[in-house]
Amino acid sequence: MGTKFTAEALRKRQIAVHWLTDASLAGTLLDQRHRQSIFLISDGTVLNQVVNILAGTTRCSGSLVVLFCPRVEILPCLQRGFNRVIYMHTAGAGTAEQTLEILSAPDRHERLIGVLPDAGTASVTFWSGDLRPLVVQAHWLDQRVHAVKFSAGSWRIVDGGRNVEIGSSRLSAAEIRCQCDVRFRREFRRREWAADESLGGQVRMLRRRLGLRREDFPGIDAKTVARIERHEIRRPQRETLRLIAQTLRLSDEHSFDAN
Predict the structure, then answer these.
(1) Quick check: 60 and 79 in contact, CB under 8 A?
(2) Which residue in 190, 200, 194 sits closest to 256, CA to CA?
(3) DSSP E strand boundaries for the chain
(4) Quick count: other Cβ atoms within 10 Å of Cβ 191?
(5) Distance CA 46, CA 38 (A)
(6) Tens-digit pLDDT profile for the chain (259 aa)?
(7) Domain CATH code at residue 158
(8) 168/231 same-domain check
(9) 3-state SS, residue 96
């Protein structure tokens, strides 16, 4: 077997992405055994031709991304021929051109290329641009969109893979990845906090920079600090601002912009 393709490898290096548009191109590329390549297929006829090329072989040639659901009976052949086989509902995938652009983008791990709902398990798999499956349960989606539908036509990748439309609702790729990836969630929140110039954002950033807990503010209840950081209290009393500024080693309460 060839070297296993990993999402980490895709993030760290440029992986060649080949859009297989005809059988001759597919045959040439597969014969070269591009173990660290991604092969993209958007046409059923080309997929059938690839199956014929692979028939009777055990070659291992990179990863295959199919922008539709292939017939169940050909999956074993595809899985023998490629390190990884990814497929999705046609309506839940972007165009081939869009998918090609996402797979080649530096921020591909933050974008989506397709959706595969599964009514049997009441779950939905979102495929990210680094070929990672992001699996969420229907009840999680129900809290964010109205009446999750598992029909193929209910899903659509938009905005270059940065969002997905579910009926009349919309979810961001970042929100989906945050739900599935703890490391990404921490990094995403860190970036959000760093860009948050509100009073709550400044308090949270400075508190964390000093290694303080919310309980470490003399004269202020920890719950009050939490509510300020969550923007539930946007205009604290002047004395509260003074105590916060003192704990955070600022000159005075005017160091904050409470607007």
Answers:
(1) no
(2) 200
(3) 17-19, 38-41, 63-66, 84-87, 112-118, 123-128, 133-137, 155-158, 163-166, 169-172
(4) 11
(5) 16
(6) 233 334 444 444 557 888 888 777 666 666 665 667 888 999 999 999 888 888 766 566 788 999 999 999 999 989 888 889 999 887 667 788 999 999 988 889 889 998 888 888 888 899 999 999 999 888 888 777 765 566 656 788 888 999 988 877 788 888 888 888 888 777 777 776 666 678 888 888 888 888 889 999 999 999 999 999 888 888 888 899 989 988 988 865 445 654 4
(7) 3.30.2020
(8) no
(9) helix
Q: Taking a C-beta distance cutoff of 8 angstroms, is the pair 125, 115 a contact? A: yes
CB atoms within 10 A of CB 100: 19
Query: Which of 124, 179, 187, 172 is CA-nearest to residue 152?
Result: 124
63 with 116, same domain: the answer is: no
Tell me the two tokens of residue 26. Answer: 């597919």
The residues near 95 (Cβ < 8 Å, ≥ 6 apart) are 42
- The CATH number linked to 246 is 1.10.260.40
Closest by CA to 114, choosing from 85, 142, 139, is 85
Please classify residue 165 by burial: count the beta carbons closer than 10 Å to its beta carbon, then call 0-12 exposed, 13-18 middle and 19+ buried: middle
Domain residue limits at 66: 7-87
